[in-house]
Design goal:
The protein is built from 16 helices and 18 strands. It has about 450 residues and is α+β, with helices and mostly antiparallel strands. Helix 7 runs antiparallel to helix 9, helix 10 packs across helix 11 and helix 14 crosses helix 15.
């Protein structure tokens, strides 16, 4: 196997650096985890959720530590460290690595692959039977084979920097605010008082509203200093840099005559969190047996490689189609305020009810996403809240304060926001509504495809 890498490792990569328990399980199977843990990463086992500047949940990550085969924590591992260790593992396993080799074109077909690249001032060509494109969101392999995804509905833009704070506490912070909607800000702690912090927002929203992401990031840093108890002395120790992710909702077949796409190149990114490290490794594990079978059969056409799409759809769809539905629903910026109010209410419930937190909170970074369990639990709470809406309104009117929970005022706000969306841009609103309905149908069509979330059990290599 030949690995072509355009830079020289170690190198920096824009990323939140969060490796969750499923990813740590894979790294352990690759014999990489021990080396990574030698650096003393800070275990992340707690989280805090801030909504409009107020902490609404703080405690253990409710769905960590429930699976015996999974670590009860995640790690923040900078990509210059993580990727260097993984590349070294590939070399030790027998791969030939050519660094500082920039791939410029890929001619893949059913009889083989020809890759053209630049090494310094020299143009070099490689021939192979198959290619696995793991070359990121601007994949040359993907573009060369008609597999490009440029839909702003499935693309998020982010800016990230490293900083320092006063304390080492293994608590990841997530910040939701109307300015970031649909998107969020994060602050992920590392050992030694370092943190990875950044903001991400949907490209569609950025384009429609003219959002300037560097300004958004600067405002987020200042807000963290004001609202987060450990960020009063927050200082940046690296310049903020920007990045792009393309999420699973836009994933295509990811196979073609002569090859496949894995990782960011194939849009293997969580539509809600933007997390892509673990899905990238999982996609590679799913591609491996398909490529081996093609080599054994001596067939390299798209028909032979279509087993890859079957494999990744069976593995990712049960959870990812639901997460894609959630992300599509949140695309409507006019509904930001009622959605954020609902999120705050959900965090309050999660703080008081661990079972609710475990199931309903799993739509955001959960390890075992059960769509109908989540929906069922949420609908029960919604019905309970609506039944008490009028009594809350009356109590609030008598007491002069807004009562906790859903009120008639909240229901009116939903309706008002919906009408505002429809009036401001009827064509976009209609397209968004149809898109959400189509994704609902897709979620329903996945019922019964898997007994649970296959990602929780992981991939058993043959």
């Amino acid at each position: 196997m030949l690995v072509l890498e355009r830079t020289r490792f170690p190198r920096e990569k824009v990323c939140g650096d969060y490796v969750e328990p499923r990813g740590l399980r894979i790294l352990e199977s690759m014999d990489c985890l021990e080396r990574l843990e030698a650096g003393g990463p800070l275990p992340i086992s707690h989280s805090a959720t801030f909504v409009e500047g107020r902490c609404r949940y703080s405690g253990e990550i409710p769905f960590y530590g429930l699976g015996g085969a999974l670590p009860p924590h995640g790690y923040i591992i900078p990509r210059d460290v993580l990727d260097d260790v993984m590349l070294d593992a590939a070399a030790q396993a027998g791969a030939t690595v050519h660094e500082e080799t920039l791939v410029t074109s890929v001619d893949a077909g059913p009889t083989g692959v020809e890759v053209e690249a630049r090494r310094g001032a020299t143009t070099v060509r490689y021939r192979a039977k198959l290619v696995a494109g793991a070359d990121g969101v601007n994949s040359v392999v993907g573009r060369s084979n008609g597999q490009t995804v440029d839909d702003p509905r499935y693309t998020a833009v982010s800016q990230r920097a490293y900083g320092t704070v006063d304390a080492d506490v293994g608590e990841a912070a997530f910040c939701f605010d109307e300015d970031f909607f649909p998107g969020y800000g994060w602050m992920f702690p590392m050992a030694g008082g370092r943190v990875n912090l950044g903001v991400g927002i949907l490209s569609e929203t950025r384009q429609r509203l003219g959002v300037h992401v560097p300004e958004l990031f600067a405002e987020f840093v200042e807000r963290l200093r004001q609202v987060h108890p450990r960020c009063g002395s927050l200082e940046l120790c690296s310049p903020p840099i920007g990045g792009i992710v393309k999420t699973y909702g836009g994933a295509g077949p990811n196979h073609f005559d002569g090859g496949v796409l894995v990782g960011d190149a194939g849009s293997f990114v969580d539509p809600m969190t933007g997390e892509g490290i673990t899905p990238a490794m999982e996609s590679a594990l799913l591609a491996s047996p398909v490529l081996r079978a093609a080599l054994d059969a001596g067939r390299f056409d798209a028909g032979q490689l279509s087993a890859y799409e079957t494999a990744f759809r069976d593995y990712f769809d049960p959870a990812m189609t639901f997460l894609d539905l959630c992300a599509a629903t949140l695309r409507n910026r006019h509904l930001a305020r009622p959605w954020l109010r609902a999120l705050a209410r959900g965090c309050d419930l999660a703080q008081a009810d661990p079972a609710f937190a475990r199931t309903s909170g799993s739509y955001f970074g959960g390890l075992d996403v059960q769509p109908f369990g989540i929906l069922g639990q949420i609908w029960v709470r919604v019905v309970q809240d609506l039944a008490l809406a009028w009594p809350r309104l009356l109590r609030g009117a008598r007491g002069g304060e807004r009562a906790a929970g859903t009120t008639v005022i909240d229901l009116v706000e939903w309706q008002t926001s919906w009408v505002r969306s429809l009036v401001s841009d009827p064509l976009w609103h209609a397209r968004w509504t149809v898109d959400v309905q189509r994704k609902w149908a897709r979620v329903l069509s996945t019922t019964g495809r898997a007994a649970g979330d296959p990602r929780f059990a992981g991939i058993v290599e043959s």
